[in-house]
């Protein structure tokens, strides 16, 4: 690790530390799938530094006869919340394959109804929204969603906490090996 820091300092470039993604992502895939993803990651990581950066993406796409613009490369990299190490790479694929939206997208949906910007929505108000707008939920579906949801004694639904539960599971699930 020290060699990467000194190498980065010498070239004037410093890498941001990869945001730690939960190891729960490994429970989403079979061992043979993880191995295939690792092989793909290694093929994309052209400079073998353990991270996929803009140069890696450019080189990989160029080897396929494509010439993406810098803007396109930045947009691709922008889909990750931080530098793309192997765990982040798996997390991104897991999100795509499981059909869940990225954390920020889910959080922003809740923010639309958080008039005070405090990260909470009263459970009664949220229930009304869920039962009257968009894909309307039934009373039973809302109650099922609220089971295990972070709701305080005043009835405030902590949507930031809920997003983390949606994406990474509960502490109890982590303790028993990522069960769903």
Describe the structure.
This protein is mainly alpha-helical. The protein is 54% helix and 3% strand. The protein has ten helices and two strands; from the N terminus they run ααααααβααβαα. It has helices spanning 2-11, 31-44, 54-63, 70-78, 86-98, 103-111, 123-132, 139-146, 159-168, 171-175, and strands spanning 120-122, 156-158. It has a two-stranded antiparallel ribbon. Residues 1-23 and 171-180 have low confidence and may be disordered.
Helices and strands in order:
Elements: H1 2-11, H2 31-44, H3 54-63, H4 70-78, H5 86-98, H6 103-111, E1 120-122, H7 123-132, H8 139-146, E2 156-158, H9 159-168, H10 171-175
Helix pairs in contact: 6-9
Please describe the structure with a list of short key phrases separated by commas or semicolons.
2 strands; 10 helices; single chain; elongated; mainly alpha; 180 residues
N-to-C order of helices and strands: HHHHHHEHHEHH
Give the end-to-end Cα distance, rounded to a whole number of Å. 35 Å
Q: Which structural class is indicated by helix and strand composition?
A: mainly alpha
Give me the side-by-side strand order of the main sheet.
1-2
């Amino acid at each position: 690790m020290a060699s990467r820091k000194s190498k980065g300092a010498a070239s004037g470039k410093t890498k941001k530390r990869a945001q730690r993604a939960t190891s729960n992502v490994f429970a989403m895939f079979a061992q043979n799938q993880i191995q295939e993803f690792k092989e793909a990651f290694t093929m994309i990581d052209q400079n073998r530094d353990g991270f996929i950066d803009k140069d890696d993406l450019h080189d990989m796409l160029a080897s396929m006869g494509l010439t993406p613009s810098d803007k396109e490369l930045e947009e691709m990299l922008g889909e990750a919340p931080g530098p793309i190490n192997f765990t982040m790479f798996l997390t991104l694929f897991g999100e795509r394959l499981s059909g869940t939206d990225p954390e920020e997208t889910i959080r922003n949906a809740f923010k639309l109804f958080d008039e005070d910007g405090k990260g909470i929505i009263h459970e009664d108000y949220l229930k009304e929204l869920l039962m009257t707008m968009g894909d309307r939920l039934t009373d039973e579906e809302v109650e099922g969603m609220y089971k295990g949801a972070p709701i305080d004694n005043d009835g405030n639904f902590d949507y930031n906490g809920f997003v983390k539960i949606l994406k990474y599971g509960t502490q109890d699930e982590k303790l028993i090996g990522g069960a769903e």
